[in-house]
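Lecture 7, part 2: worked example. A protein chain together with magnesium ion.
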Amino acid sequence: MKSNMEQDILKVLYTEEEIKARVQEMGDALYDQFHDKNPLFVGVLNGCFIFMADLVRASQMKSQLEFIGLSSYQNGVKSSGVVQITRDLQSDIHGRNLIVVEDILDSGNTLAFLKKYLLAKGAATVNIVTLLDKPSRREKAITADIAGFIVPDEFVVGYGLDYGQQYRNIPYIGVLKPQVYERNEE
Ligand code: IMP
Ligand code: MG
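Predicted complex, written out as C-alpha cells:
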C-alpha cells in the first residue's frame, strides 16, 4: 500500500489485527454490562472517530451515540491542562447511562473535566472506555473503566490519534519519530 506517512513512524506498537481483536473484546464486555440499559455512547472528538466506529459495531447492542468536542492541546505533544468545549452535546443526557469513548488517557485533564461536566448535567452513570492508557503521565486522579492497551510514555499516532491533526488515518498505532515534533518545536 502506498503511504507518505510511514517514513515518520519509528515503530509499530499495535497492528490492525491486534487492535481489531482487542476492540471486539471491549465491545463484548460493554454488551454484557449495558445491553439492557439503552446506553448513550459519548465520543470525544476528534481522536475517537475511528475507535468509536469500530467499538459501537463490536458491541452490537441497542444504544445511541453522540459526540463532544474538547481540546486541551495547542497542537503540541503536551497537555496545556486547560480544557475547552469546542462542540457541545446535542441531546439531553439527564438520567442516561453514558459510555465515554476516548482515544488516549494521558494526564487525565480531559477526562477529569468531562466526567465532572457530564455528572453535573445529570448523567446517571459515566463509564470511561479508552483505547490507550498512559498511566505514567497522570496528573488527575482518574481511571478508565475499560482500557484497550497500556502504553509506555511515547507519543503515538494512528487509528484516530494525531500529531498536529495529521496521521489519524494510519490504520495501526505507531510511535512517531521524535524528530517529527522536535523540528516543529525549534
Ligand atoms: P489528557 O488530557 O492529557 O489525558 O490528554 C488526552 C488527549 O491528549 C487525548 O485525547 C489526545 O488527543 C491527546 N494525547 C495524549 N497523548 C497522546 C499521544 O501519545 N498521541 C496523540 N495524542 C495524545
Ligand atoms: Mg489529539
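DSSP finds four helices and nine strands in the chain. The domain at 6-66+94-185 is CATH 3.40.50.2020 (Rossmann fold). Keep this in mind for problem set question 3.
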